[in-house]
What does this fold into?
Amino acid sequence: MANRTMVRLGLATAFAAGLSMPAWAERIAVSVGDNPQAVVEVAADGDVVVFKAGEHRGPIRVTRRVTVEGEKGAILIGPGQGSVVTVSAPGAVVRGLTIRGSGTNLEKMDAGVFVEKTATGALVENNRIEGNLYGVYLHGAENSIARGNTIVGIEEGRLNEAGNGISVWNAPGAKVLDNSVRFGRDGIYVITSKRNVFSGNRFQDVRFAIHYMYTNDSEITDNVSVNNAVGFAMMFSSRLKITGNVSDGDRDHGFLFNYANASQITGNTVLGRLQPAERWTTGGTRGKDDKEHGLPTPDAGEVAQGSDARPGPTKCVFIYNANQNKFRDNWFEGCEIGIHFTAGSERNEMVNNAFIRNRNQVKYVSTRYLDWSKDGRGNYWSDNPAFDLNGDGLGDSAYRPNDLVDKVLWTAPQAKVLMNSPAVQVIRWAQAQFPALLPGGVVDSHPLMAPPARPKTVAEGGRP
It folds into this structure.
C-alpha cells in the first residue's frame, strides 16, 4: 500500500508539472464478467484501463484522467438507455473499443461516446461505434478530439429520428480528424462553436456530410463526401477555410452556402454522377424534408427530364445570401447546375475555377451584372467557344453563361417546348449582334482557354 501511495504521489507531482503520463502508470485489466464501472472508478489519474477481448456490459462514466482502451475484439455494450461511455474528466482517453447499445432519446443526446463540457482536451480515437443514436458527441468540451473512429449510425427508421455521426456543440478548438461515418442524419453537425478543425473525414449515406451552423473561424479540409443528399452545408457561419474537399455523387448540392460570409473556398472538387430515379423519388437517404432551413427546393425546371437517371448534384454550388467569399481553384463537374447564385449575395469573388460539362453552368436571375474575373483572369467554361488569337491563354471575348432565353425559361419552365422554334433562334441571334439586348447577369471578361489542374481525389492519390 505504501508503494502504491508513493506512485500516486509521483503521478500527482508529474501532472501538476504538466508532464505526460509517466512510464510507471498502472495498467488495470477488465476481464469479461467484471463490473467495468467498478474497475474504472478505482483507477487513478494516469492509469490505463484495458478491456480484454469479449463482450462487456456498460455503461461506464470516466471521471478521472485515465485511458480506457480495448484489446482487439473488446466490445462494450450499453443497456439501450443513455450513453454507453460518458467522459467528464479533462484529458481522458477512450480508444480501441467497439461500442454499441446507446439509448434512442434525441433530447437526452444518447451517444456511443458523450464528452461533457468538463472534459477539456479529451480524446476519442480508433473506436468502432456502431448502431448508436449519436456516434460521438463533443458537448462543450473545449479542445477535445475525435480521431480515427469508424462510426456506423442507425440505418433503419425515419431520418429525422436518427442522430449524427459526430456532433459538436459549443466546443472551441475541438478537432474531428480522419473518421469514417456512414448512416445516421449528418456526418458532422456543429453548432455555436469556433476555432474547430474538421479534416480527413469520409462520409457516406447520410443527409449532410458536414453541416455548419453559427460556427466561425474554423477549417474544413480534405474531407470526402460520397452518395449523400448534400456534401458540405455552411450556414450562418463566417471566416471559414474550406480547402481540398471532395463531393462525389451527392444528390442535391455539393456545397451549400446560406448566410455564410467572408470565407475562403479553394481547391475543392464536386463530381456529378448519374443518379438512379429512386434516389429522387424516395429522397435519397431514407427520406428528406421538402425544405431545409427555409431554403427554396429545386423546381421541376432545374431537374433533367426522364425517369431513368438524372445528374446529381442538382447544383454543384448553391449560394444563398452569402457575402464576401472567395472561390478559387475549384473544380465543378457534371451537375445539373454548376453554380446557383441567388438572394442578395454580394461581393463574392470567382477566379480560376473550372466549370466542366454542367447542363447549365450558371443560374443567376437578376438585372445586375457580375463580372467573375479579377486582375485580368477569370474561370474556365467547358462550353465556351472562344478563340485565343494572341495566345495569352484567355478568350478574346467575354463569356456569358446566360441570356434572355435562359431568364424566360427560369421564370416560365413551360417555355421549353419553344426552344427549337425560329422565334427563339431569332432572339439569340439578335442578342449576339446587339449585346445591349442582353439581360443583367454573370459575365466573365477574361475566360480561361484551358482548365486549371483538377485537384486529385483521395482514390486518385490526392490528400487523405
The CA atoms of residues 409 and 416 lie 7 Å apart. Residues 1-21, 303-307 have pLDDT under 50 and may be disordered. Helices lie at 2-16, 36-42, 277-281, 404-411, 422-433.
